[in-house]
Amino acid sequence: MYDVLIIGLGAAGYTAAIYTARYKLKTFIVGAEDGGMGLTAAEVGNWPGIIDIKGPDLMENFKKHAVSFEEVTLKIARVTQLEKTGNHFTMTLQSGEKIEGKTIILATGSKKRHLGVKGEEEFSGKGVTYCATCDAFFYRGKDVAVIGGGDSAVEGAAIAAQVAKKVYLIHRRKEFRAEPYWVDRVKARDNVVFVLERNLAEIRGEGKVTGITLDKEFEGSKDIKLDGVFIEIGSDPSAELANQLGCALDKKGFISVKPNQESGVPGVFAAGDNTNESNYFAQFTTAAGEGAVAANGVFNHLQTVGSKGGYMSGG
Known about the structure:
By secondary structure, this protein is of the alpha/beta class. The chain has helices at residues 11-22, 55-67, 132-135, 151-160, 180-187, 240-245, 284-307, and strands at 2-7, 27-31, 72-76, 79-85, 88-93, 98-106, 110-112, 128-129, 143-147, 166-171, 192-196, 200-205, 209-218, 221-225, 228-231, 235-237, 268-270. Helix 2 (55-67) links the parallel strand 2 and strand 3 (72-76).
């Protein structure tokens, strides 16, 4: 029996594990993808104390710190089911293995949005990807398009421009929502073409992507020949496991939490990009902060339950 089950191997999950370990709580941390969304950040320039670091490297540092504590057990696996059993929780992994814990921290992050346009599903993995910073390397010397206007899209265009022959940055609006830092980086590249106030209507190809069709003409045509399409239109919170436990979600689908990161279900906490805390500001810093607060919430919860004659932490 673990004191806490942490689901998610990103900034929130690993930070929570560091803090629960420091509280001497027996901790089990699990996730299907080690590093979470942090793996998609090619450059991180806003982590305090480190001027410049790659996302995967930063996440590796998080991991090393967390597993340096003997209280932490790490497993790479997908969680398929959560249920409350008496005064504890049972977690089922895809393999069928069951793990029991007294509390839970849901640090499941978010999942990439899809456009739903013709050809998107057909060519997924055949020229259509959802992480420009992850996959740009495979399009060296080729023409690609990045779809979106937020941080991930503009950052992705800047990274792709370093290796691609030409990058079409397609955004449905005239102005970008991304940080000015990334917008300036993209504007400084002479191989980035801004295709504004246009929507992607179709992805075309024969076995693999060969081009796209826009909803309005650009430079005399709706069609653009290219080799790859990076769809970067944001993410939605991963709340499937929260639903299994009956956690309340807000109107945007994020887990509603209290100031201590506890959900409406006693003993269930949430942290990171899947919560409605931190003004929906999905950053490494906010995820880590919520992870720390959630760990503190778990510690206090276990102490309170123990003082009332229930289970004690550390057992």
